[in-house]
TrEMBL record:
<dbReference type="Pfam" id="PF13007">
    <property type="entry name" value="LZ_Tnp_IS66"/>
</dbReference>
<dbReference type="Pfam" id="PF13817">
    <property type="entry name" value="DDE_Tnp_IS66_C"/>
</dbReference>
<dbReference type="Pfam" id="PF13005">
    <property type="entry name" value="zf-IS66"/>
</dbReference>
<protein>
    <submittedName>
        <fullName>IS66 family transposase</fullName>
    </submittedName>
</protein>
<dbReference type="InterPro" id="IPR039552">
    <property type="entry name" value="IS66_C"/>
</dbReference>
<dbReference type="InterPro" id="IPR052344">
    <property type="entry name" value="Transposase-related"/>
</dbReference>
<feature type="domain" description="Transposase IS66 zinc-finger binding">
    <location>
        <begin position="118"/>
        <end position="159"/>
    </location>
</feature>
<feature type="domain" description="Transposase IS66 central">
    <location>
        <begin position="174"/>
        <end position="455"/>
    </location>
</feature>
<dbReference type="InterPro" id="IPR024463">
    <property type="entry name" value="Transposase_TnpC_homeodom"/>
</dbReference>
<dbReference type="Pfam" id="PF03050">
    <property type="entry name" value="DDE_Tnp_IS66"/>
</dbReference>
<feature type="domain" description="Transposase IS66 C-terminal">
    <location>
        <begin position="462"/>
        <end position="499"/>
    </location>
</feature>
<dbReference type="InterPro" id="IPR004291">
    <property type="entry name" value="Transposase_IS66_central"/>
</dbReference>
<dbReference type="InterPro" id="IPR024474">
    <property type="entry name" value="Znf_dom_IS66"/>
</dbReference>
<feature type="domain" description="Transposase TnpC homeodomain">
    <location>
        <begin position="39"/>
        <end position="110"/>
    </location>
</feature>
Length: 506
């Protein structure tokens, strides 16, 4: 964004400086116009999906899940538009209608906010002349409470100075939910996989029914506010020299067509041996390798993954492929389970020896882990490779055992690179473990309602799962982050990342 220029500065500028400034301003205006047009188009499409007739091929619960995603998407776009331009409010512009008061029967927690000093700068004692009262809705499992904030007004009789404690900043400005209620909704949906229509009924049993459209709006607003935190987490993840990656299919609804499209959730995490614990999920509309390249950018470290072809282009651009021994083992396990193959059984026994060594060296310092791998694992892998080559020459082409052997032999260099680097794991099980919560949630939320909804879910799940990996209660973590985020300096965003976060002192 081009900074505001004082008129006196403009007069002092030369012709070349003025032309350069005009070009920067024109570029800034064109960029904002393009973003505004894009977001306005998205709003129009979302409204058409929400209010136009829907295909009867969708079940009722599927309709509700689509509506949840659209409500969140609309609010998220409105917040993004507000961030692009925040013009001063016109005094003649009417205020929005006041929302209904919170139920009087809900328990109240009264919080008084008074000035630090009631002494006027002129020396007179201030006199309390009134107060402003606002209410926030809070929730602990099964119980709603209302935070009643009372801000006293103090005036000086001599100089008419008015003093009042400022209104605390909130993630949703002028909204009723506390950070605790927002954290609960986010964790319930993206951590415990409860769709909003189920949360709506749970809240109704607690005494205050919150419409799912409102819950969706809150999620959309929180998603926009939390996005810088997720971007910072991604930057820290890709700074590691060893990453583990995996991907899993997720159905994405194609509104208006009554059917779903296969999208993918990609998972990236530092090596299981890295000091940092964190995971970033990236939602994409396909399994194309371009999505992995876009996420990794210019990163050229060692990538632990399966043999999926989408990573091949990254390997051609300098990324080092690290194979997964668990995938190689799985081929022999499936063969042994189906046909009791003696060759497969022997392969499983030898691979088991490698895993026994990994179990023993897991908690050793890197130098000691490397030394043990060289002296103990290297002879086993060399013998295993020789044995596989011999067996391959004896089995018929195209047989099941030949395919199992070929899988390992073609990837042998990638499968054994872990022996050279103590920070590289023997398999990709760590990344697969991080993707399991998604597989569990898939059974409950059925599909992603839109590409934007999928990306928002991936971002919030990244924070929730990373908080768990660092031993934090995700509810406590998100509540504290949502409380601090509105006033937190952007340059200190790293303090709020799950691996750096410490709770605010009570």
């Amino acid at each position: 964004m081009v900074p505001m220029i004082d008129p006196t500065q403009l007069q002092a500028m030369g012709a070349e400086e003025l032309r350069a400034l005009a070009m920067r301003l024109l570029t800034d205006v064109r960029h904002k116009d393009a973003v505004n047009a894009k977001l306005t188009h998205e709003i129009a499409v979302l409204k058409r999906w929400k209010f136009a007739a829907k295909s009867e091929k969708l079940l009722p619960e599927q309709h509700s899940l689509l509506d949840e995603a659209i409500d969140a998407d609309l609010i998220a776009i409105e917040h993004e538009l507000a961030q692009l331009a925040t013009p001063a409010k016109n005094a003649s512009e009417p205020d929005k209608p006041r929302r209904a008061a919170l139920p009087a029967d809900l328990p109240r927690v009264v919080l008084h906010h008074e000035p630090a000093s009631t002494l006027c700068p002129c020396g007179c004692q201030l006199k309390r002349i009134g107060e402003d009262v606002s209410e926030k809705l809070d929730y602990t499992p099964g119980v709603f409470t209302v935070e009643r904030h009372i801000r006293g007004k103090w005036a000086c009789a001599k100089c008419a100075t008015l003093t009042q404690a400022p209104v605390a900043a909130h993630v949703i400005d002028k909204g009723i939910p506390t950070a605790g209620l927002l954290a609960h909704v986010l964790v319930a949906k993206f951590g415990d996989h409860l769709p909003l229509y189920r949360q709506e009924s749970i809240f109704a049993r607690a005494g205050y029914a919150i419409p799912r459209s409102t819950l969706g709006a809150w999620i959309g607003a929180c998603g926009v506010q939390l996005q810088p935190l997720v971007e910072a987490l991604r930057e820290r993840v890709v700074q590691h020299p060893v990453l583990q990656a995996d991907e899993t299919p997720v159905a994405m609804l194609m509104p208006g067509k009554g059917k779903t499209h296969r999208a993918y959730l990609w998972t990236y995490t530092p090596s299981v041996f890295a000091a940092m614990r964190g995971v970033v999920y990236d939602f994409a509309e396909s399994r194309a390798g371009e999505h992995a390249r876009a996420f990794l950018g210019e990163w050229q470290g060692k990538l632990v993954c399966d043999d999926f072809g989408g990573y091949k282009a990254s390997f051609a651009q300098g990324v080092t492929e690290i194979g997964c021994m668990a995938h190689a083992r799985r081929k022999f396990h499936e063969l042994h389970a189906s046909s009791r193959s003696q060759i497969a059984e022997e392969a499983l026994k030898i691979i088991a020896q490698l895993y026994e060594i990994e179990q023993a060296v897991r908690d050793l310092p890197p130098a000691a882990r490397h030394e043990r791998r060289q002296t103990q694992s290297r002879p086993i892998t060399d013998a295993l490779h020789t044995w596989m080559m011999q067996q391959r020459g004896r089995v018929s082409e195209g047989s099941a055992i030949a395919r199992a052997l070929d899988y390992s032999l073609r990837r042998w260099e990638a499968l054994t690179r872990y022996l050279e680097d103590p920070e590289v794991p023997i398999d990709n099980n760590w990344a697969e473990n991080q993707i399991r919560p998604v597989a569990v949630g898939r059974k409950n939320w059925l599909f992603a309602g839109s590409l934007r909804a999928g990306k928002r879910a991936a971002a919030i799940m990244s924070l929730i799962q990373s908080a768990k990996l660092n031993g934090h209660d995700p509810y406590v973590y998100l509540k504290d982050v949502l409380t601090r985020l509105p006033t937190h300096l952007a340059r200190n965003i790293d303090e709020l990342l799950p691996h750096n976060w410490t709770p605010t002192a009570a």
